[in-house]
Amino acid sequence: MTRLIGSALFFILAVVECNSFAYADDESGLVDQTSRPRVSDAANTDTGQNLLSGFSWPTPLRLGGCAALCDGWLGLFVQWRLCSTAATGELRSEPIGESRARNPITFYVSKLGDNTDGTSWQKAFHTVQTALDAVPDDQGGHRVIVRPDTYMEANLLPAHRGAKGAYNELLGDFDGSLGSGTTGHVVLDAGDPRKGFKSYDWWGNIRAYQKGWSAEHTKETVSAIKWDRWILRRLYATGGDAGFFFDCTDKIEPFSVIVEDCVSIGRAFGCGVASCLSRSDEPITFRRCHMWSLDEWGDTAGGYIRIENQSMPKFHDIVFEDCTMVSPQCALKGGNYGFHTYTHALVKNCTLIALNFSQPHGTPTDGVVQSVQNGKYLHVDFENCLLMGFKVFGVKVDKDSAGEIGYSTKGSALAYVQHTQKVPAGFHTLDRWPVEAFAKLAPPAPVKPKPVLTHRELVVPDLCEVTPFFWQSRLCLMECYRPSSGGAKKDYYLLLRDAKTGDPMARFAVGYGLASCHVEEGVFYAFASRFEGKNWNDVTLFQSSDLKTWEQKVIIQQENEHLFNSSVCKGPEGFILAYESNDPNYPGFTIKFARSANLGTWAKLPNAAFGTNRYTACPTVRYSNGYYYVLYLEHRLPSHVFETYVTRSKDLKVWELSSANPVIAPTGLDEGINASDPEVVEYGGKTFVYFTVGDQLTWMNVKRAEFDGTLQQFYEHWYIQPGIRDRGDMASEHLRATTQAKAEAK
Q1: How distant, in Å, are the alpha carbons of 359, 392, 466 from that of 364?
Q2: pTM (2 d.p.)
């Protein structure tokens, strides 16, 4: 008996000592890592309302802040976990050794990674869903960090939930502090990559699906319950019927999620939850978020909430803090048609706007805040909030029950409504247009780095390619003229022009285009492809010392391919030619290389190439301080968008991308979907980048941007942070071929 009492006392001391060190950090608002007896793991439904009323034992952590304490002399004793069973509510003891140890993993998502295991920026997955699928267990603490970019992905769902006191995280590296190499929004776009906004029931940023919803919904029901105990931060969700909206469908279980510093836009719902229960100590939380619904038809709201409580709880199911909720119909909505369940919300420091100030006899909204079925099913506690819209409260079905919507006000509770509408007690009628509050409609601008290129301006309209060069100390341009498609041989030619005066200097190379040039020891060299047979062929050299008499010859002959854009630079081992090929062994297009000692005779470099795994086009090659740099065009699949990237190599064999890519993206209203055909020149201590904007089909214009520094400084700026190995080079291609051959041999 003495031994038993001693062991029990030692167990209690161990538990208390461990738990005294077991508090979560909290910025996220998580409670400490102590826990009450749980419902059986099979159900995984701890409600936060202790089934054994009034009984709460502290639980030793599996691995946590007290791991070191539990590892020494405490480890000599058996630790026990106290649990409850769903069936009987009886306490049962379970050796903690049978629990799975927590081993949190961080996964990275970047389109610049090699898409292998996601464990670093170098090895990053290309899609968010791939990273979510890689989450190995439900022990929590796992992180998915996403590089700022646009990800055309819909219906995201992780493989596993998080855990109490150890939420999983999906984070956008918005400010570059997590090593992505850039800043800006992480845009999760659920739209159609080629057709745009996809407003369709059960299609959005978060995966959930109800079989039988309509005749078209024939797939099996899917619940968003696996987002339980996740934190989503610094993300921009858009493109579908709902943004960060978590519908647990047929899994009406306790659910907790934290969404912070996000923009969330949907046709029906900006943010929200449905078909779940809540936890009293882990409320569903939206903090510092912008929520937009884009439609006034149907069941829509900036924030939509439906917790399936059978009576109104005393605690808050859901918390909105420092949020902006906007919709044409209503800012916040609770419940649904035919549902008789209760939801309790806290709305703190929020702006709620219903974009409907109709006249009473027009089409007014039912309220900035609405309860769908009956007023009694919704209770909202307001603290320091502003509501704007036709009227404050309303009900869709039992309209006379609007007065039964439960609410309280604390601090400043302001309402700006249509002048004939009364404001509920506790709210102060705002009589002046709230200018500052209305300005909150706009989501916060992305954190952008200081622009590398400035003074973007149009220099040559209705043209696709130019190459700057110096001739007799004058800055000049070689312009490539060609129709958008078809045309006769005479429509294709090269024109040299003085950049300052615009005066033409020479016209030559009829029937050729996609050209670049180089001046060496007073001789002008142009490298162009021949348009013949409705395609581009070979690389032909044109040279002249007076721009009047021209010599020409084919220097690169195509082999089961067609050749397109090219570029030349001088390096330590002679001259290097980069040329674009549609070699059928690789995705179109691929950039290949050749070397020459005299610019007249060229030898192909079969082991020097990149773009063997994707579209890479329009190369411009330069040598600087030990590296060959290539500006080139990336097709940002699956979207029809084209951006200029930079990569570099010491030997033309192994290449590394800049983690700060893209160099140029089409951002202006006059730039279409394309920023291609880059060319660079250093002039007056500055670097000028010429590039082409347009739609890649019918119109193109040439623009120029400026970098305040030398060409070397320009290129090295993109590698302030270490580069990322480009897996589209020949070394990687040989490795892939060898691996495939070994696999086939087995």
Answers
A1: 7, 12, 57
A2: 0.82
